[in-house]
Design goal:
Blueprint lengths: L6 E3 L4 H10 L4 E4 L5 H6 L7 E4 L9 E4 L3 E5 L4 H6 L1 H6 L1 H7 L5 H6 L2 H5 L12 H6 L28 H8 L2 E6 L2 E6 L19 E8 L6 E7 L10 E10 L2 E10 L6 E2 L3 H5 L6 H14 L10 H24 L1
Parallel strand pairs: 1-3, 2-3
Antiparallel strand pairs: 4-5, 5-8, 6-7, 6-8, 9-10, 10-11, 11-12
Amino acid sequence: MSLPTFKLLRPRTVEEAVGMLHRYQDDIQICAGGTDLLPSMKQRLFTPKFLMDIRGIEGLERIRVTPGLGVELGALTTLSAVEDSGFIHRHYSVLHEAVKTVASPILRNMGTMGGNICLDTRCLWYNQSLQWRKSCGFCIKKDGDLCHVAPGGKKCWAAFSADTPAALLCLGAEVNIASPSGFRRMPIADLYTNDGVNRIKLAKNEMITSIYLPEASAGYQGAYKKLRIRGSIDYPLAGVAVALKKKGKIIEDAKVAITGVNPAPHLVPDALHALIGREVNEHAATVVGELASQVAKPLTTSLLTPEYRREMIRVYTKRAVMAAGAAAGN
């Protein structure tokens, strides 16, 4: 499959990029690593008249540590750079654990943190060739008005299928957003809409420029567990991130988040109450696994059944809690 015709734009500053987004906002797509966008363009899921390559913007590829504040990850920071960062590994281990599961080393060399955060939602009925989708009458996410996953419904249930946002939710991360009127910062928890079509709260003339990891989350021990058919390359069909802070054997704080089973990544709100003030043990981990499975709402968006994916959220949450507890103990 070939790419559709487009005009390539190469801004050199954030201001120039935002100006292009504002000028061509109905006919433009941002391209960073392109590992997800370009295959989707070949499938005619996106046919922009303008493709804006932002890799020439200086300063968006750095990892900057500011004592007293935390860490800033530029939106163009590659996943490999985050994976290879000893500082991230030591102080934000749940993010390191999540990043190293993304795709393959070659794709992590190209893929960026900003791209992973803004990844398009995925569905068995959506991520297909134009001919395949046309034969099925298209779907509510692209060119049609029928949801094959939930017939009769008006909502798109395509699953959010990125790994790093679950870890970022556990760390209380924030994103910096540039627009024609300036910059604003938003908790990553508020970025997602839980709508498979309009998945993130970004206007057409806005772009993410960086991600902030607060210093208060440094030192939490984390784990990330991911269900996929193959051992590499695949998107998560269910993913669980866990970050724990312990004092001795007792848990002082805990965050659990899931991805791959809803149209957005989600924190498990009651996980803290099930873990705080307790030791990590199989009973506590089992309770948190049950809580996570109640948040998960998988439908037939992949080749694996919803029942199996929900069950694996339960199993992988238990495993992730135990793994994070063991790491915190060390």
